[in-house]
Amino acid sequence: MDTRLKPVGELLRAWRERRRLSQLALSLDAGISTRHLSYVETGRAQPSRETLLLLAGELEVPLRERNLLLLAAGYAPIFRETAMQAADFAPIRAALERILAAHAPCPAVAIDRHWNLVAANAGVAPLLEGVSPALLSPPANVLRLSLHPEGLAPRIVNLAEWRAHLMARLDRQIAESGDPALLGLRQELAGYPHPAEAQGDGALGELAVPLRLATPGGVLNFISTSMVFGAPRDITLEELAIEAFLPADDATARAMRSG
């Protein structure tokens, strides 16, 4: 954790401004006075641990950052971060494996908060043929795999459209979290060669942005869905997400069934 913490009031104000809330709106949501919130933000008042957690909850601050708020206010962190391979995490690993396996033969991956690959099902490996081994070395990053010129990018038929979709998701994540690692990843991705303009992709593109991937057996068309675990109390669990891909047409569904 960063030991050079800013004052807790300054951190709270930054989260409030990131969420585009006024002091009045936040104080009403949290059920505290606007004056007290103002005093907390300016350092004239020290928030209790309960008030700090209440404000963090209203601001939807990630658990990792709630620990930093607690530290900045002089309190001990309360949210733990369990290693993926820890014994306590076994039920989550089992659930993750069941979800990924159930989605096969369609591809699905589990990622962490920085889009690093945590797990993948059997449907993913065949789609990665020809990808540079360097991009597959742990920790393999899913966005880098998708958009790097030595990754999947040359085989993505609608690369400009798919890239715009991924970059927009990343931008929203950066705006919500303020994570400098994600900002660095975005700067890297922005430097990759890419088509100048995203074009619409027919009738399907009117509903959702598809992933159209060229393979030796023809073009596969997928739509994607994202899943997170509900009501997490652990940092690792909160930061896990599952990205699953579903056939967008009958030909792709047949190709998935036939392997």
From TrEMBL:
<feature type="domain" description="HTH cro/C1-type">
    <location>
        <begin position="12"/>
        <end position="66"/>
    </location>
</feature>
<dbReference type="Pfam" id="PF17765">
    <property type="entry name" value="MLTR_LBD"/>
</dbReference>
<protein>
    <submittedName>
        <fullName>Helix-turn-helix transcriptional regulator</fullName>
    </submittedName>
</protein>
<dbReference type="InterPro" id="IPR041413">
    <property type="entry name" value="MLTR_LBD"/>
</dbReference>
<dbReference type="Pfam" id="PF01381">
    <property type="entry name" value="HTH_3"/>
</dbReference>
<dbReference type="InterPro" id="IPR001387">
    <property type="entry name" value="Cro/C1-type_HTH"/>
</dbReference>
<dbReference type="InterPro" id="IPR010982">
    <property type="entry name" value="Lambda_DNA-bd_dom_sf"/>
</dbReference>
